[in-house]
Amino acid sequence: MNPLVTVICLCYNHEKFIDEAVNSILAQDYDNMEIIIADDCSQDNSQAVIKRIAAQHPFIRTILNNKNVGNCKAFNNALAQANGKYVIDFAADDVLVKNRISKQVEAFEQMGEEYGVVYTNVLDIDEYGKPIGLHQKENVELPSGDIYINILEKYFISPPSMMIRKAIFDELGGYDESLAYEDFDFWVRSSRKYKYYYLKEVLCHKRILRNSHSAQFHRKGKAYVVDTTIKVCRKALWLNQSEGENMALVKRIRYEMMHAFRMEYFEQVKNFYTLLEEMGKVDGLSKLIKKATDWKVKVYWLYSYYIKVRYSHQHS
Hints:
The chain has helices at about 20-25, 45-55, 70-80, 100-110, 150-155, 165-170, 185-190, 225-240, 245-260, 265-280, 285-295, 300-315, and strands spanning about 5-10, 35-40, 60-65, 85-90, 95, 115-125, 130-135, 165, 195-205. By secondary structure, it is of the alpha/beta class. The protein is globular and about 60 Å long.
C-alpha cells in the first residue's frame, strides 16, 4: 500500500482561490492522502467556502481559527493532527499538478531515511492563473544531497514545492512559532542533519499576488520580518561546523544587510553588522553601510557615493 501523505492546506484570505487549490489536491493520481484545511481567521469569506467544501467532502478535516495566530502556529496546529509519513505544506492559493504527490513519493521511497525533503521546480502564475515564468530556468541544476552550505548562501527553493518526511517535523518540533516566517529557519535546521533531493520537474503552480503574505516581506514597515532573518542567521552561526559554512553565511548576511539598508531598516542593519563583527568578517562595504546607517543617509546617496568611488578607482 502506498504511504499516507498529509496535505496541510493553509488559508488566509484565499476566498477566490481555495476551490481551485483543494480541487487540485482531490484530482491527484495518488490514492492515500489525508487533507487538513487550516484557516487563520481570514477577513474575507474563506471560512464559509471551507465549510462548504468540507460538507461536500466529509473526509477533509478543518481548523477554523477565530483569531489570527500566524502562519507558523497555524501550521503546527494542523501538523499535530497529521498521520502521514510525508507532509506537504500547501497554501490555499497555489495549485498542485496532477501527479505531484505520486512523483515525490516515488522519489522518496527509492532513497534512504537520510533524505528528508524532496523539492521540485515551480511555475509561477498570476492572480488569474496565467503563467509568469519558472522559478528556476530549465537549464539550471539545483543541488541534491547535503545542501546546508547552499541554503546558507542564497534562496533557491520554492517552499510550496517541498514534500517533507514527517519524522523531521517531529524531531524539530514543527516550525518555530516565535518567527515571522518559516522557510529559511526550516531549511537551516533540517538541512543540517538531513539530505534534500531535487526532482527536476514542474509539479506545483505558485500564485504570485501583490498583497500576499510573502509579498509583504519586501515592503517598508515589515522590519519584524528582517528580525526573523537575523534570528535564523544566528541559529546558523551556532550550527556551523566549518570555515566554508561560515563564509556562506557571511555572503547571506551581507546580502540581507544591504536589503535592510535599502528598506531603511537601520536598527536591523546594525544587528547584521554586529553579527559580522562577531564573526570577524566586516568588509569595506559593510563599514560604509554601517556608517551611512549611523548618519541615516538615504539609500540613493550611498549608491551615488559607492558608484563614484568605484568609477574613480577604475579610471585612476
